[in-house]
TrEMBL record:
Keywords: Oxidoreductase. Thiol-specific peroxidase that catalyzes the reduction of hydrogen peroxide and organic hydroperoxides to water and alcohols, respectively. Plays a role in cell protection against oxidative stress by detoxifying peroxides. May be an antioxidant enzyme particularly in the developing shoot and photosynthesizing leaf. Belongs to the peroxiredoxin family. AhpC/Prx1 subfamily. It comes from Phaseolus vulgaris (Kidney bean). Its EC number is 1.11.1.24. It holds the Pfam family 1-cysPrx_C. Gene3D superfamilies: Glutaredoxin. This is thioredoxin-dependent peroxiredoxin. One of its GO terms (biological process) is hydrogen peroxide catabolic process. It catalyses: a hydroperoxide + [thioredoxin]-dithiol = an alcohol + [thioredoxin]-disulfide + H2O.
């Protein structure tokens, strides 16, 4: 019920509005236990975000305490970086990388080209 109310509330009113992905509920706490975010004595989960590839491998995770929210912009940037390196396997994205910016080679000597340009 709370998920339904959340998506039926527009974003400016604190809701999620229309989403293009499903929301799930973890009534049995099995998901939060599996990802080691459950606070057992409180029966609640930390704020966890996991980006999992098609093979089921965690490519990125962020776990915050209950008082700290997660950044949608940083999640989007991370997804874009993951997509970029998937399409360009001989490149890596430096911290803060955004689409259209230079990436670098995962090699100490070759990465000097990137660092000399910034």
């Amino acid at each position: 019920f709370s998920h339904l109310a959340w998506v039926q509330t527009d974003r400016k009113s604190g809701g999620l509005g229309d989403l293009n992905y499903p929301l799930i509920s973890d009534v049995t706490k099995s998901i939060s236990k599996s990802y080691d975010v459950l606070i057992p004595d409180q029966g609640i989960a930390l704020r966890g975000l996991f980006i999992i590839d098609k093979e089921g491998v965690i490519q990125h995770s962020t776990i915050n305490n209950l008082a700290i929210g997660r950044s949608v912009d940083e999640t989007k940037r991370t997804l874009q970086a993951l997509q970029y390196v998937q399409e360009n396997p001989d490149e890596v994205c430096p911290a803060g990388w955004k689409p259209g910016e230079k990436s670098m080679k995962p090699d100490p000597k070759l990465s000097k080209e990137y660092f000399s340009a910034i």
